[in-house]
Amino acid sequence: MTGSEPNLETQVQEFASDVATRVLMCLEGAPQPNELTIESNDGRFVFTYRQTLHAIAGEISIGIVQLDYALGFDRAGRHLAVHNSSFQLKDRRGKKPIVRIEYVRDARTIPCSHVHVHGESGLFTEFLAATGHKSAAAISSIHVPTGGDRFRPCIEDFVQFLIEECGVAGREGWRDEVFEGREAYRQIQTAAAVRDRPEVAIAELKRLGLSVTGELDDGRPEPRSRY
Amino acid sequence: MSVTIEHVTKAELESRLASALARVELSLEELADLADSYRLTADESEVWDEVRRIQFLLGE
Question: What is the complex's ipTM, to 2 decimals?
Answer without folding.
Answer: 0.93
